[in-house]
Amino acid sequence: MGSLITAVASYCDIKQRGGNWHVRLDDIDPLRHDLNASTQIIESLNTHGLAGDGPVKQQSHRIARYKAARNLLSGTAYYCDCSRSKLKATPIYPGYCRSKGAHQADHALRLHVDDQSRTFHDGIKGSLDFNAQQRFGDFVIWRRDNLVTYHLATAVDDGEHYSHVLRGEDLYEQTLPQLYLIEQLNLKEPAYAHIPILTYPDGTKLSKQTHAPPLDNSMASRNLRTAFDFLGQKPPNTTLSSKDWLEWGVKHWQLAAIPTILKPFHPYHDSDT
Question: What's the half-sphere exposure (Cβ side, CA atoms, 13 Å) at 19?
């Protein structure tokens, strides 16, 4: 249900603006990417009427573009061979490897960020002033196993292709280094809004790791009404088809109505009661 809520929010917001809605798979890590899970996600979206405008976009098909972006950043990047154990006690990277020489095959590529202040405006959370070096420090843009990082791939995609990005609040902090990359690559910054995440009554996020119940695709229209309810859109107490619910949602969509904290999810939550 948590993923559906975010998808519904992004779909209704961009459709109300007259734009196109795209589905992207972050499949750049072959060891972590679950093809079956991705297939299930696409099937679930389609069942709920949430078909993207155009084919599903896959980051694994854009590696050449990410390498080009990496090369553009070479002047402010350096190779790092620090182990996870060495960095365990340092949430902000202290620059151990900034003065090291030529790279080796098992080195990561880390970006040396500046010490300037910036302002980020989020459509739901408001404005945030942050200093890149103090907030997240030098970060890895290319991994030691020769894979692009989520930060670089996402920054390139967002800055090149999208005017608006709506996603879960759990990705809010990760947006800041991505904004830094968008600036350094001279790309266009999208408008961002981070949707509060759905949690159990004890505050635990719904996820596969916390054994969240799978979305029942046979109840698509009820699921959509529940999603609008969680998003504060005040859906009518009526029965509509999935297509009609999405049309209603686009017509009545109000980003400002989304609560800062979603009400807790109960396994057998029914927004009709």
Answer: 13
Q: Which of 18, 4, 5 is nearest to 251 (CA)?
A: 18
Within a domain: residue 29? Answer: yes
Number of domains in the chain: 1
As a whole number, mean pLDDT of residues 142-156 equals 95
Task: Compute CA distances 208 → 7, 31, 78, 169, 236, whole Å.
Answer: 17, 17, 36, 17, 31
Residue 38 lies in a domain: yes
Identify the domain containing residue 31 by its residue range: 1-61+196-273
CATH code: domain of residue 45: 3.40.50.620
pLDDT tens per residue, range 30-64:
767 677 778 888 999 999 999 999 999 999 999 99
| Paired residues of 79 in beta bridges | 109
Residue 22 within a domain: yes
Task: Answer whether 13's CB lies under 8 Å from 193's CB.
Answer: yes
pTM for the whole structure: 0.90
